[in-house]
Amino acid sequence: MKNFGAKSALVAAAMAGSMTATALPAIAQDEGPIKVGILHSLSGTMAISETTLKDVMLMLVEQQNEEGGLLGRELEPVVVDIASDWPLAAEKARELLTVEDVDVVFGCWTSVCRKSVLPVFEELNGLLFYPVQYEGEESQRNVFYTGASPNQQAIPAVDYLMEEEGVERWVLAGTDYVYPQTTNKILEQYLMDNGVASEDIMINYTPFGHSDWQTIVSDIEAFGSAGKKTAVVSTINGDANVPFYRELANQGIEASDIPVVAFSVGEEELSGFDTEPLVGHLAAWNYFMSVDTPENEEFIAAWHEFIGSDDRVTNDPMEAHYIGFNLWAAAVEEAGTTDPDAIIETIVGLEVPNLTGGMAEMLPNHHITKPVLIGEIQDDGQFFVVSETDDLVPGDAWSDYLPESAMLDADWTEPVMCGNYNTETETCGGSSASAE
Amino acid sequence: MFRAPFAFRLLAAALCLLAGVFAPIAVSAQDNTSQIRELIAAMPDASLRELEEIVSSLAATGNTDVVPVLEALGEGDLYFNEETGDVVIVTRNRMYDPVTEEEIAPVGETDLSRIRVNNGLRRDIDATIGGMTLMADDPQTRISAARTMGASPDEENIPLLDEALAAETDPAVRTAMENARAVTILGMPDATLEQKRQAVPIVSRTSGGAAIVTLRSALNEDTPEELRADIESAIAGLEQERAFWQAAQNVWFGLSLGSVLLLAAIGLAITFGVMGVINMAHGEMVMLGAYTTYVVQETIRQNSPELFDYSLAIALPLAFLVTALIGVAIERGIIRWLYGRALETLLATWGLSLILQQTVRSIFGPTNRQVGNPSWMSGSFDFYGLSITYSRMWIVVFAIVVFAALLVVLNRTSLGLQMRAVTQNRRMASAMGIRTPFVDAMTFGLGSGIAGLAGVALSQIDNVSPNLGQGYIIDSFMVVVFGGVGNLWGTLVGALTLGIANKFLEPYAGAVLGKILILVFIILFIQRRPRGLFALKGRAVDA
């Protein structure tokens, strides 16, 4: 109520200002600072990953302000804590869009967070930039997915293992929730399409925060001693990784016997432990801190200065925020306004440099183009890039390897304007499998 | 140092002739140092594929001087100077020449970059070194060389192995060599039937867990009948053995999970079981214990790294003190005002647990902290068919010691006597002159201190993060309730039962369903026996 009063007072003042055309300070809707909402967990389980993303957003906003802001206006960050609580995330998103009146929101880590704030952004026509690799099978008009979709991370990683390491037997190990389940479904189909027999695939799910890996690791060892080269594709999330890798090391499973390729383990996760026994295990990302480009060097230097410590690492979701923020800034400059509808129209097709020395382009399906890098863990907690895709890989919203989504396409430009366009029936609304 | 095998000298001589194409002067096997140096000098600029070629060229020189440089490359100890391009081996902050292994004094500020390798190259290097170190002086080196040969069988190794076996006297090395030879023969298409039949029993005796795989991969359509019968009976025998050891392994895993549960729950068995306080902040005491370990290790790392192996021994008393003091403060500050009001205690301690988590998060940051394993807690050993990891084994031992010590404190000390007196009949105890508030604080401090000890142990197998405690609080309550409130032996039996049941369910039901089944089982069990496995009898029940 108080806010509403304040706003109408502003509007009244603005109207008065424009009518009398005096030198009153500019306070109308399109004046004053541009507000950038930051919607991350700063406490609770996910704080471990998301606090860093909040910091990197603050840094990007600060940098932009040093360069004079956008459209001649200052940027103002608005930070809220969603406390790893997903209903609260929806409330906080609503608060950002209605009470704080932010122009854009950067946030969320988990898929369940994204799913719970989605209806809010749709209803209030906000903009959300989502920076984390995810399971795909989604495209929404108000959301921009700057992390990897499965075809930009999981599929190239499996290709690498098949071609370079000659892997024939696969363990798909994951935490029991939507991202690993969907990714593993896609991978299983992909492996079968490539002639892997179903008895050569073992799928294993564990609860969040699983800490006793003895049985599973010895199962993996047994599965891997069947005479064929075996690899583990890990979608194990967050905290469960440390005990998992420790158990691997303790039971003497080395990367040269059974390599583990992980999609959720980056520099930040590795900074929690001694990586000496893990050397040679792999991770697939679109960015590694060790990539040697001038852009990356500059970014790391700026990050170290901002955070006040040379020990802090950078990781893939941070790069995704960097790209997302620059894409949004470029769209604002191009459109000359922060109006969401104008941004959604302008941003498609824009290109900004990524940190690994290429250009990231916003595609009509609201995903971006990314290079895919496969890195081996080194004993200093960094990754050594052993493989890199030749070209940028465009993000695919709907997986081509799942029968229920192969015919779906997302295109938020005229004339399609649809997040789940069925190319067979040529209608918007997707197949029966899609929930959106 | 090395007795260079004849085959190598021959091979090297042949290669040196080839090398003559790009090295103007052909050098003898003993004197190809300059060629080796040239190859090493090409390493910094080489791509991974070129590195593979360099490694095989180095091996082809037949000169055992290249072993250290290959080892260093495989282990990531090989660096190059970014300005001059000089390649050096770096271990423990000292630089060595890659060929002569002489120490090089660092000249001013040098910018060193590592020469990086990947898994495939590491495997190549291991196989190469294996071939070159089969005749080394150190038996351990010979064993690992033989093992590498067994892991990547190659018929060209057979003459080398024969030569080495003829000279070998050490029984352990002989076993490893015989195994490598038998494995290789089984996989050779042109070995005679007799050779192969002789190899079968050797493989099944010496290959350990890999025997079944090796034998099975030796079977194909063309396998002669007699050999097939041999192999199949060997496999059947091995599988029977394996089923037995698998069950034993499950019991061990269960014991080890049980001991973790016991450690986490035993402090709660005091505060909840003996005092009746529902302490939701118990998990945070465990977490604080783990952070104490972290602080101790950090201090040691910075001041006296040589003490690192003792870090846990130093952390134990400190963790106990820190958490016990916090426990006493909690009891004096909050819980004593809430005795007899279970709901308020629950809510207050829950709130407290959130405060403690966020405090730790603000001080140490939200990310995991690195707590290392001392050397005596890393790795594993084989005990017949079991593979036992040291960290788990020590935790089982530690849990038993803590449990025994606690029993002694409760049953043999005057503080223990007073604790039992106060919990059984507070007013009577007070009338006998026992300072009940003091005993309450001590009891709560003891329970918290033990949680801190558990934290030191858990820091070895779990993440040290602010969320550490949350993962254990539910399990701990489950154990205490299942075992019977107020009974330490119940906690012991409860923890071990749940651990073993969990591990036997996991292979069949999966980790997620296994946990659910255990929970359902406990709910049903509590329906039948509301007071748990070992119910307290007598007047104490009604107090």
- Count, helices of chain A: 12
CATH class of the largest domain in chain A: Alpha Beta
| Helix/strand structural class of chain B | mainly alpha
Instruction: Estimate what percentage of residues of chain B fall within beta strands.
Output: under 5%
Largest interface: A-B, 53 and 60 residues
Helices of chain B, by number, come to 20
Report the principal-axis shape of chain B: globular
Quaternary state reads heterodimer
- CATH superfamily grouping of the largest domain in chain A: Response regulator
Transmembrane segments (chain B): 251-278, 307-330, 393-417, 438-457, 477-501, 508-526
Keywords (chain B): Amino-acid transport, Cell membrane, Membrane, Signal, Transmembrane, Transmembrane helix, Transport
Signal peptide (chain B): 1-29
Subcellular location (chain B): Cell membrane
Descriptive account of the structure:
The complex is a heterodimer of chains A (about 425) and B (about 550). Chain A contains 12 helices and 19 strands. With about 425 residues, chain A is α/β, with parallel strands linked by helices. In chain A, strands 7-6-8-9-10-14-15 form a 7-stranded mixed sheet, sandwiched between helices. Chain A has a 5-stranded parallel sheet with strand order 2-1-3-4-5, sandwiched between helices. Chain A has a 3-stranded antiparallel sheet with strand order 17-18-19, with no helix packed on it. Chain A is globular, with a radius of gyration of 23 Å. Chain B has a 5-stranded antiparallel sheet. Chain B has a two-stranded antiparallel ribbon with strand order 6-7. Among the domains of chain B are: about 5-130, no CATH class; about 250-475, no CATH class. With about 550 residues, chain B is mainly α. In chain B, strand 3 (about 95) and strand 4 (about 105) form a beta hairpin. Chain B is globular. In chain B, helix 5 (about 120-130) packs across helix 6 (about 140-150), helix 9 packs antiparallel against helix 10 (about 210-220) and helix 15 (about 390-410) crosses helix 16. The interface between A and B is large, with 53 and 60 residues.
